[in-house]
Amino acid sequence: MWVVIFSVSANTLLLVLPFYSIEVFDRVISSGSIETLVGLTVIGIVALIFSAFFDAIRFRLLSRFAVTFEQRMAPLVLEATIADPARRREGSTHDLVRVRELRNFFSSGAVITLVDAPFLPVFVLLLFFIHPYYGTIALVGAVVLSIMGYVSNSIARAEVKEASGAAARCQAQMDGIVRHANFIRAMGWTGGAIRSFMRINDEALSPVVRASERVAAMASAARMVRSILQILAIGCGAWLVLQNEVLAGSLIASSIMVSRTLQPMESLISAWRGVTAAQEAWKHISTAALWVLKQPHRTQLAPPSGLLELKGVAYVAPQGKRPILRGIGFSCRPREIVVIVGPTGAGKSTLLRMAAALERPSVGEIRLDRALLENWNPDQLGRHIGYLPQDVELLAGSVAEAICGFEENARDEDIIAAATLAGAHQMILALPGGYQTEIGRDGHRLSGGQRQRIGLARAFFGNRKLILLDEPNANLDPDGEAALCTAILSARAQGATFLIVTHRPRLLTIADHVLLLRDGTQVAFGPVSEVLPSTPTAISPVRRTVRQPDRPQLLSG
Prior knowledge:
This protein has 557 residues and is of the alpha/beta class. The protein has 20 helices and ten strands.
């Protein structure tokens, strides 16, 4: 609102220049009054100073507005990105990048041009008031430039549409190369990776270059049109003066006003690419923000005891046709350890993700302490669930920060307690910096076993009531597995309920119940001694992972 107010003031004061020309040529020269000339000059200079002052203020206001816009929109967009998996597509432009693009757009001259554009009819009317010929020249110029602006806008939109797919592929290719740089180097694929990236990058650049050339040509044509119209205005003014239809001052005034009238139109032709990009960015940002704002308020429930119930659960991936899971139903009582086994592709990890509320079941329901997972407040639910995915993901920073995450009130003693419970305390102390050791992005400076133990400590941190572990012993040696079993039993003694996916038999020795999956279907659920011997063919993948000396103990329950 204030930008518009100061724009009205600045544009109104700019009218001083053409009227100053009229008064000087038509009054001062004819009267020879020096006092009138000095007075008009002082008034004109003061008016232009105030116009520049108002112009600076509106730029300052737009800059402040742009910063405030980012401060208010970024949290909503980031929350939508975290909560909505569809917004985390690999290779796509992040919505936070689009927020910054809009911030830059709001603080740019393009917005000032858009704000100044509505004043065009006012200047055209004033030119008609001076003489209809002047108004006609400005009106024709505005129509021609509007057509050119429409063409420029169409070119910009075609560029965005054509380049978006290629840009996404290029970004995905670059992300993959950077993420797997060591593997690419080890395999001798560096040259091939570069050539592949450059080929896709060229596909993304081609439409951008073509559109830039066309828009630049259109902008040059627009400058030519505006210059021609100024010449026509001066020529028409001279002819009208010779015909004694207007005074000489209108000749200069009309040229200034025609230029000022058509200048925003010319600027818009060059700025349409930025305007189009801003429109596309706003579509994504507003969708993300509305998604967050429309989320219903969820009442804070009492802390759970750890009772997990699944009833008739089935899951079909968003782009899939065949269900990954179907007919899953069991109960995991507080302080129980349930181990999920089955061949690869049985849906074990997907089931764990649904229990962590990362995926919603297509059919059926999952309840924690009798309440549907979707009825829990997400942040409150997350504080009671410890989750260790199969591919351990650690936040960059120190070991201590990787364990406590973004917990603002984390205490050192709680971090050490979680690490001790996970059997990771001595291992962490052996690191160069102890708990302050920087682990790098995704913990790449650590070994697989070290990441596994720190991820387990993170799952234990905060007295979690439901702990979900996906292949927690995948990178552990026998001593590590023994320590893991001890840690799980200790956490259970403190009130934790466990749901564990494994391909290795050691964890079955501490399980209260075992869930057997095959081809996404629940084959059996119950005590280990009842489930495993009764279905020998279904558990063969588990048996093959057992070392020969341990097999009799496993089969005997």
